[in-house]
């Protein structure tokens, strides 16, 4: 007899699994997914995720074996945390708050994470800011029996480029698989909307979906506002669009709420806008599509074009999509700096496993394993669920990754373009000017707002607080801030990352 103790997610290929496992397809979504998980565990055990597609994290108590079994999906779209108490029990959950509320949990700061966070702007790897609380990493499952904990990796991204397949053949594969994803991503009785930016990923998902409404965010600052491009795409597709105007007052008004719901600090400035977007969208739908995963799988970032130039030097410096604060700056501002605690240590084992791969593939591998899980998927999951919205990401699927894993670098990036094959696929349903539009990214006018005394009062407060004094040389971080206000706007990321940590710490360690 087995029992599900914790589950969050959505199983896409539920119809095929229900047929194979003898489950009544007429059951409610909640009941059928529970039945699928339990019967898949009974039939395949630790190999069960090989048969499942979707977003999921769960824990099963196996009464017969007297064992807890927990599994997280291949990409880590849903979080799972665990903690061993002093008396040997295992606390677990898909929220850190669930663990904190259980008997035996002792709240302590894992201060070593701060030094890494200041470079990466997110919490990477299996450690968290709470001492003893660990993440079950993507593509892993755990077993806990008789006081013994065992972690097993069941999946990792592997790349085997196929030079025999043409660009058009890869584009056809992508498009046909995307069509399949969109058929599976929701049932006929569900109604969804779709997040839409000016980029190809969200535009492609929206074009293939049956969503009648798109949701986008914009600003009064034209340089940062992608919403006119999103509106233009929606018009070309004959669909409606809802635009949220994000003001600096709105933005700074939800920073504390966002860091509380995130459970860990996150220095990605777009996370605050995403919070506001989820709040607004949840007022008129409870289900929304989003286009995450394409950049990392299919070569979407501009820096990927430098892969060959980086070459053999990658393992010495490339730790993923962000690396904003160098060691000399951290040494100046931190009261407790450890020269051995370096971000590059997080990815050493990844580089050892990918020695045979080309530089672009090695960069993608790091981003898929570290950046996606630590920043992108965390943000999507935490902010959507906190605001009553369910987000499904059709591109994030092992069947999409299978195509990307066989694709040579030349079909991902070239001198003129990124995501070459993916854009070629998207052009089958999008106007060419949309499919091949230059990547803008989810940019925020925060670099200007932070210098404005109308909005930055909480930043100034925390930079001169007892909390800051506990971790930082206050004169040193103030000097960075003054240089920023004095005109060096490139320092906004460093200031924002320090600030988000201070906000998070105040919430979790200074408030009752």
TrEMBL record:
InterPro entries: Asn_synth_AEB (IPR006426), Asn_synthase (IPR001962), ASN_synthetase/amidase (IPR051786), AsnB_N (IPR033738), GATase_2_dom (IPR017932), Ntn_hydrolases_N (IPR029055), Rossmann-like_a/b/a_fold (IPR014729). Pathway: Amino-acid biosynthesis; L-asparagine biosynthesis; L-asparagine from L-aspartate (L-Gln route): step 1/1. Residues 1-147 form the Glutamine amidotransferase type-2 domain. One of its GO terms (molecular function) is ATP binding. One of its GO terms (biological process) is asparagine biosynthetic process. It is an enzyme of class 6 (ligase). Belongs to the asparagine synthetase family. This is asparagine synthase (glutamine-hydrolyzing).
């Amino acid at each position: 007899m087995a029992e599900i103790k914790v589950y969050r997610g959505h199983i896409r290929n539920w119809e095929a699994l229900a047929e194979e496992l003898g489950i009544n397809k007429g059951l409610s979504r909640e009941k059928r997914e529970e039945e699928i998980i339990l019967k898949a565990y009974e039939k395949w055990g630790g190999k069960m995720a090989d048969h499942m597609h979707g977003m999921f994290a769960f824990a099963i108590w196996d009464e017969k074996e007297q064992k807890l079994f927990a599994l997280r999906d291949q990409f880590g779209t849903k979080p799972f945390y665990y903690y061993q108490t002093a008396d040997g029990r295992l606390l677990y959950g898909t929220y850190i708050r669930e663990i904190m509320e259980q008997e035996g949990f002792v709240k302590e700061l894992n201060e070593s994470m701060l030094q890494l966070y200041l470079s990466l702007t997110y919490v990477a790897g299996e450690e968290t800011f709470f001492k003893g609380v660990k993440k079950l990493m993507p593509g892993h499952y755990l077993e806990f029996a008789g006081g013994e904990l065992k972690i097993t990796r069941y999946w990792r991204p592997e790349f085997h480029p196929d030079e025999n397949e043409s660009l058009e053949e890869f584009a056809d594969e992508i498009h046909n698989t995307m069509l399949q994803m969109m058929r599976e991503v929701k049932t006929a009785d569900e109604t969804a909307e779709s997040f839409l930016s000016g980029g190809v990923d969200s535009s492609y998902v929206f074009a293939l979906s049956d969503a009648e409404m798109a949701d986008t965010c914009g600003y009064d600052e034209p340089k940062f506002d992608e919403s006119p491009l999103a509106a233009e795409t929606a018009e070309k597709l004959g669909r409606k669009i809802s635009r949220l105007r994000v003001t600096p007052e709105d933005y700074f008004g939800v920073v504390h709420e966002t860091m509380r719901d995130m459970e860990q600090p996150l220095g990605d400035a777009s996370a605050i806008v995403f919070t506001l977007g989820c709040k607004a969208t949840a007022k008129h739908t409870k289900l929304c599509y989003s286009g995450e995963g394409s950049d990392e799988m299919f070569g979407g970032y501009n820096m990927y074009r430098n892969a060959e130039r980086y070459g053999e030097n990658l393992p010495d410096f490339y730790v993923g999509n962000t690396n904003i604060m160098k060691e000399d700056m951290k040494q100046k501002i931190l009261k407790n700096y450890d020269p051995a605690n370096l971000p590059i240590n997080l990815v050493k084992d990844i580089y050892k496993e990918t020695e045979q791969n080309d530089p672009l593939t090695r960069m993608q591998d790091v981003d898929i394993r570290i950046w996606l899980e630590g920043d992108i998927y965390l943000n999507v999951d935490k902010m959507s669920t906190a605001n009553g919205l369910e987000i499904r990401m059709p591109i994030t699927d092992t069947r999409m990754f299978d195509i990307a894993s066989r694709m040579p670098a030349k079909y991902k990036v070239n001198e003129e373009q990124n995501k070459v094959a993916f854009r070629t696929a998207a052009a089958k349903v999008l106007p060419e000017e949309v499919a091949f539009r230059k990547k803008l990214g989810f940019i925020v006018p925060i670099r200007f707002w932070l210098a404005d005394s109308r909005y930055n009062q909480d930043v100034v407060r925390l930079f001169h607080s007892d909390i800051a004094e506990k971790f930082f040389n206050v004169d040193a971080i103030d000097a960075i801030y003054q240089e920023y206000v004095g005109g060096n706007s490139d320092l906004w990321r460093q200031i924002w990352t320090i600030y988000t940590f201070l906000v998070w710490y105040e919430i979790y360690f200074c408030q009752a």
